[in-house]
Amino acid sequence: MKKLIFSVILIASIFGCSSNAKTSSNIYTASDPQTTQSNVATQTDKIKFKTEGGTDLFSLKQLADGAKLVDGNEKEFVRIKTDESGKVKIKNASEKVVGYVVAEKGYWKIENPEQNKELYILRRANNTDYQLEDAAKKQVYQIKARNNGFEIETPDKKLVYKIKVKEGKTSLRDASDKTVFSTKSGFSPIAFACFGLDVLTREQQAGLAYAVNSTKGQ
Q: Residue 156 gets which letter from DSSP?
């Protein structure tokens, strides 16, 4: 938790304002999780993330072959690029490759820059739930569907974050229900949940979120 709050404060000090993104009226329901996920906009010009107070935190700008995480001056924080096979390459602000995301049916693998080691796997646990596993296939987080979004828990059932969808806004909230940041853009709730996986770096979170959103969470 401390790691995410520090990351949010750091990014908030760097990132400025960006142009408005399109909004989505789709609301997630646990009884039909793919209704929202199958209709989310995957080519929105810019997906904006804001703090609880309404300050622009960062934006995910869509490109023809991927996306980039940018500040208000269009300075890249993360570059995401897809190839013809659908593999997602992740670069940092220095243009250094920091990893890959490979999407398969029902799961997404985060690989090291050399592509010879799996670091984490986000896997569908059933029709509505997901789980993040480490390289040893040991569960790190459970992501459980709720009527208004998801909850991220540790294997011992400790609540870490909530992802709530209400009136077109998707928010990441801590265990005390305080908003960490939110978006009104058309972005899949399960993709948004990737930004609450503290064990991942911000680059890995962005790459995974992009891959999950692009594949509609399936």
A: T
Residue 214 burial (CB count, 10 A):
21
Q: DSSP class of residue 95?
A: S
User: How many residues belong to the chain?
Assistant: 218
Bin 180: left if φ > 0, else alpha if -120 < ψ < 50, else beta.
alpha
In this predicted model, what pLDDT tens digit does every residue of 102-142 receive, in sequence order? 999 999 999 999 999 999 999 999 999 999 999 999 999 99
Cα(46)–Cα(177) distance, rounded to whole angstroms?
Answer: 27
CA 123, chain centre distance (Å) = 14
Q: Which long-range contacts (CB under 8 A, 24 or more apart) does 163-170 make?
A: 163/189, 163/192, 163/193, 163/196, 165/27, 165/28, 165/36, 165/189, 166/27, 168/23, 168/24, 168/25, 168/27
Q: What is the DSSP letter of 173?
A: E
In the structure encoding, which two tokens stand for residue 121, read together? 């796997």
Contact partners, residue 169, CB within 8 Å, separation at least 6: 182, 183, 184
- Judge whether 217 and 34 are in contact, CB under 8 Å: yes
The pTM for the full model equals 0.78
Buried b (16+ CB within 10 A) or exposed e, 153-185: beeeeeebbbbbbeeeebbbbbeeeebbbbbbb
Torsion of the alpha carbons at 6, 10, 13 and 15, rounded to the nearest 10: -120
| Phi/psi at 38 (5° precision) | -80, -15
